[in-house]
Amino acid sequence: TVTEPVTEPVPVVKDDDEEEEDEDDLAGRFLRLEREQSALLQALPPFGEPVSHIYHPLDYAWEPHCDFVRRYCRTPKRVLFLGMNPGPFGMAQTGVPFGEAWHVREWLRVVGGVKKPPSEHPKRPVLGLTCRRAERSKPAPHRAAPHPTRPVDGAL
Asked: Where is the composition biased (Acidic residues) (predicted)?
């Protein structure tokens, strides 16, 4: 569900049931680094014309982003993907890199609230995990990759 606009960076708030060592685990360190880098980016001088809107999904979509990182960045990996889907129907909607809302919600099972950015382009509203639009370069959902917890044909 999308809620009120975010007017400043969202602080990292720990739930009472989170353990203290969470901040020191791999996902916690990754999230802390992302917060630091996001603050540095937002401190840069503003863009001029023709840029009229800038979305900061790590502010308004922090909850699903954290859920994604805590689910899939828990242990060291042999492969590291760098980049994100900067399109209006990818990370801009969900805070999750490399995916449109359908894949993030249904395939990755990511959850969390998404707030409205402070300045939203009228043709590119943030709908969060309920967004039904897809990036044009993506395959149809029925051609999506297998579910991450289900084995691929012949895999163990």
From this structure: 15-25
Domain presence at residue 149: no
| Terminal-residue alpha carbon distance, the chain | 37
Q: How far is CA 140 from CA 101, 102, 132, 137, 145, in A?
A: 13, 10, 12, 10, 10
Q: Is residue 2 one of the residues assigned to a domain?
A: no
Number of domains in the chain: 1
User: How deeply is 17 buried, as exposed, middle or buried, from its count of CB atoms within 10 A (0-12, 13-18, 19+)?
Assistant: exposed
Assigned domain for 49 exists: no
Q: What is the pTM of this model?
A: 0.72
C-alpha span between 57 and 84 (Å, rounded) = 11
Count CB neighbours of 125 within 10 A: 15
Which of 40, 131, 29, 34 is closest to 76 using CA atoms? 29
pLDDT in tens, 14-52: 444 444 446 789 999 999 999 999 999 999 999 999 999
Residue 112 structural domain: 54-128
Q: Which amino acid is at 117?
A: P
